Amino acid sequence: MKKLLIALLLTLMSSSLLLAQSSTEQEVTKLSMEKWQWMADKDVAKLEKLFDDKAKFVHMSGSWKKDRELEIIESGSIWYKKADVHDTAVEISGNTAIVWNRITLTAFVRGADVVTEFTVTEVYQKQGENWKMHALTFSSVRDTHEIEH
Question: Mind listing the pLDDT tens digit for each residue in 47-75?
């Protein structure tokens, strides 16, 4: 029931964001929102397909590649429990999409829940029919931070 409510909330949030976007921007925004849920669910099978083999991930505690990120998610050493997305901006250039999400992330790290404000930058590239994530960077920000559209 809880997962259903979270999925419904994400759907409603992403629906309001999609109204002012192009179809490509809508597609990438939807994928970004789904990614947050897959991370919360520790669904490494879906994430493995989304993350490009050369993808890089930058966190507060370090940076690493795809295999390490998937291992961290699967093991729960960082459990991305909930990402409250407050704002999203998307820019498309050719077959590349850049997504900025301002979020409040609740994560289970080193034995405790931690709540942190981030602007997360995601870089996607269209490969055939699918988008692949090439980069994900967490930037710690104040809760008053705004993404310029």
Answer: 999 999 999 999 988 899 999 999 999 99
CB 11 within 8 A of CB 26: no
Check: CATH 1.20.1330.10 for 2-140? no
Return d(Cα 127, Cα 117) in angstroms, integer: 31
Residue pLDDT, tens place only, 9-57:
455 555 544 455 789 999 999 999 999 999 999 999 999 999 999 999 9
Query: Which residue type, as a one-letter code, is found at position 96?
Result: T
How big is the chain by its Cα radius of gyration, in Å? 15
Name, in order, each residue with C-beta under 8 angstroms of 125's C-beta and a sequence gap of 6 or more: 52, 95, 96, 97, 131, 132, 134
CA distance linking residue 74 with residue 83, whole number of Å: 17
Burial of 61 (0-12, 13-18, 19+ CB in 10 A): exposed
Q: Is the pTM of this model over 0.70?
A: yes
